[in-house]
Each structure stands twice: as structure tokens, then as C-alpha cells.
């Protein structure tokens, strides 16, 4: 911490070391006599600060507990101290305005499984997480894809196929690397796109060789294909795994390969994907589906009585979009 303070050009500082999960309190200043440290209890620092016009302010630098009972007591203590100060006062720091202590340590206390039973403890929660994502992303042995694909007409022409299967060049790899955003979270390799862009003149040959090996052999090292799945809350208080949105943090090599495939597919997607798919393609907006659904239901409600009956079917969007098969 002192090295950080020095690099920020603050000649004076005072640091209270962290206790357990509590963060450290650090006060930095530039003029020697402008700050006087008065009291240093366990969870806050009290100081007198003199401003540019010689006005004195009482400052309370705090790190409030994440436990509700302690936090309430500390707030009450702060209130009484501020009331007793005759001059101006300022309170700043980390007030830990969170729901409960478990949010500080992370993790799930419990989760509802697929059959509606409540599971608690790290081992049971881990089992349910693996089961849930195994069902979504795992292959279904009973699924016969040919029954679905045989009913779909071929849309990829020979020219399209030649474009999609052409040899990937070093320029394709470089384009993929420099098109990717640099501020995304890293995968298991711990590397960011910014590193590869900054040192492309050093690592380019190795990256191009790795990508070429994949496209010629159709094989990818297991270590490269590893990824971290992070869960983003859909609700404030999640009860089941469906209340989380998973995102995958991939290794950079896997991202580059995926970007190259995306670039090759982008020029033919408009031609091979039905017009009924109104999202995720340039020039198409998902809100069009809402308008179409509204018009169809309006027609069904207003149709003459002597016409043929009609029926609307609501699909399970989770099964349609959250699963591989």
C-alpha cells in the first residue's frame, strides 16, 4: 500500500491494516499540518482536517461491519459522535450497504433443485449446479438430429461452402485478434486481448500456428477448450439455478478461433437463416416479433365467427434458447 501511495505523489499517509474480511483504511494528504489524526478505534479513524481558508473539519473514515447487528450499532455510534461535534463534520468510507454477511464472503447458502427440493451446503449446491448445466449443455443420447435436419432444405450453395472452408490466413487471425474488445474478463489462461494486441509482433507466429493446427486437424487441446462459467443474477434473491444467467469466460485461443468462424459465417447468414428469425442479424430487430404477435392475436380476437377456428401456441423459450440441442 505504501508503494501505491508513493506512486500517487502523496508524501503523507496513515494506514489501518485490514482485520479479517474488513478492508484497510488509508488516508493520504500532501501538506504536513493539514491533517491531524485524533483517534484510531478498530473500525474507524477520526481526524481533524484544515482546509485552504483555515477552517477545521472533523472527518470520520469508516469501514462498517457487514453484519447487520454490528452495522446498526456502529451507525448509532457515528450519529452520536457527529452530533457532539460543534464544527463541520464529514463521514466517508465503506458503509457495507448490503443485505447480509454471506454476500461479503460469496457463494450460495442453498438452492432449489429441479424437483423443487431445497439443497443446502457447498456439496449439495455444487451437485445441483453441475446437474443443471449438464442438462443444458450436455449431449442427449436420445436426440436424433437427423430427424430434424432431414426436413430442412439445403441453403448453403457451393460458392458459400468454398468460402466457409477456405484456408485461414494470418491476416484472418490478426483481424480476429484486433476486432475483439480489450476489456473483457479473462478465462482460465488469465490473459486479456489487450496483451495479445500489444505484443502481436512477438506472439503472432505462435498464435497463427495454433489456429492453423485446429483448422487443419479439427482437434483442440482440452486445456484450450476449458472455460470458467460465471453466474450473473437475474433476481436479487435467487432461489433456483434458472434465476442465474451463465456467461462463459474462455481462453484467448478459443476466442480467436470463434471470432474467425463468426467472420466467415457473417457474410452468408442473411442468405441461409429464415426471415422468421428476427434477432442477432444485421438489419433485424427482435422487437419485430412483439409487433407480429400482437397483430396475430388481434386478428384471432376480431375474426368473423363463421371463419375456420385458429389456435396460438406458446413455446417454452428456455428450452428453445438455453439448450444446445
Helical segment count: 14
Number of strands: 10
The outline comes out as extended
Kindly state the percentage of residues in helix: 40-55%
- Give average pLDDT, whole number: 81
Instruction: Please provide the ordered H/E string of secondary-structure elements.
Output: HEEEEEHEHEEHHHHHHHEEHHHH
Blueprint of the fold:
Blueprint: H1 2-7, E1 12-16, E2 25-29, E3 35-39, E4 44-50, E5 56-63, H2 68-84, E6 89-94, H3 102-105, E7 110-112, E8 118-120, H4 122-137, H5 145-149, H6 158-164, H7 170-179, H8 193-198, H9 200-217, H10 222-225, E9 227-233, E10 244-250, H11 252-266, H12 269-272, H13 287-302, H14 317-321
Parallel strand pairs: 5-6
Antiparallel strand pairs: 1-2, 3-4, 4-5, 7-8, 9-10
Helix pairs in contact: 7-11
